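Q: Convert this sequence to structure tokens.
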Amino acid sequence: MNCMFGKTKGFTLMELVLVIAILAILVAVAIPNYDGLETGAQDSAIQADIAVLSNAFSLSSVVNDSAGKSAVPAGTVVDVLSNIDGDTVNPNSLKLYALNTSIAQYYKKLNKSLEDYFVDSSNNVYYKGRFSRVSGGISAKLESDMGTTVTARVLGGDAAAAREGHSAVLYDGKMVVFGGYNGTWHANCYSVELDSYTSEENTLSGGSIAGRAYHSAVMHNDSMVVFGGETSGGLVSECYSVNLKSLTVDAKTLGGDTITARRGHSAVAYNGKMIIFGGYDGAYQGDCYEVDLNTFKVTERTLTGDAVSGRAWHTAVLYNGEMVVFGGYDGFSGMVDCYSINLNTYRVTARNITGDAVSARYGHTAVVCNGKMIIFGGNGGGNSCYAVDLSTYISGVKGLVGAPSAREKHSAIIYNAMMIIFGGNDGSYCSDCYEVQ
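A:
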């Protein structure tokens, strides 16, 4: 039996190229569509989350208050997951009772033990952790309008008397507070453990330091370096190194150029040097000195570029090799101008702060967190808080939920993305402590 087999014709090279090209076009069209569908699905899911949360607050009641989410003040950051199976608690200790039993299951789906939610001025509820890419979700404006939670912290252990004009530095997870004035010039030193807020008075040995306030303090290795300020005998230009590991004091003789006795100046530590700017020595100064923290030799630095007028009670922070000076008092009024001093060239650049207007102030505090200068309080500033982006110098006002009283000449440090505020004067000398997220 004879069988006939026909010839099988294969694809030509041109046909293969054509097929590959068609497939490439289909993939190019399909991927954006898939991404769009995925993005749309994610956005829809998050918008559904908003609806669920909004429904939860609509079906909630506030103890000793009116029912519903309208009872929650705009700007409140609510820790809705503090009790996943029952009550939810807001930072003002108002209990919210979820009447919608599906909410607990929704919380569990998020697989988180504690998250912050934000209530806007229209009583919409936003989950802060998931909105960076939502169409119509949290915009830059909504981010800037978000309430910032403030927690009052009761200090346990040794009690630090109320005071103003003290200094505070961060060392080994502790806020170290030194000096200050409350009718008495203090030279006592306290370490506040920032995980437990337990305070311990430190007994300093070695050299003695006269009680003082309105001085400066910076950290260098394990030592807190204290310069200047005012004592019961008047303005001083003394310098001390306080080893915070051994709690020993070493008086330092400054060589080189002379720094006049002063108060209300600012100082930052940079590349093994303490950079001192301005202050009051009988006149309001705009001078700048560099103190080598190994040799304690002083070099006066001539500032070039934009002129900075003399001032005291201003703030200075270190950012990307620059000393950023803000505000202060010139003998006539509070100031609102801002300058950056390049600490390699000592060239000054005037910075125009745009965005939300920061009022003129002095005796305020400033810290740096996530590339922003966080300004709080001061004379003329009340208890307002602003975040100034140090790459753009755009300012955003920060609404503080449970804000401290308006005050000046307090201290502030940054710790684990929290600003820790202590003491100051709000019409009376203060000894209270606050943690600002």
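The two ends are 92 Å apart (CA to CA).
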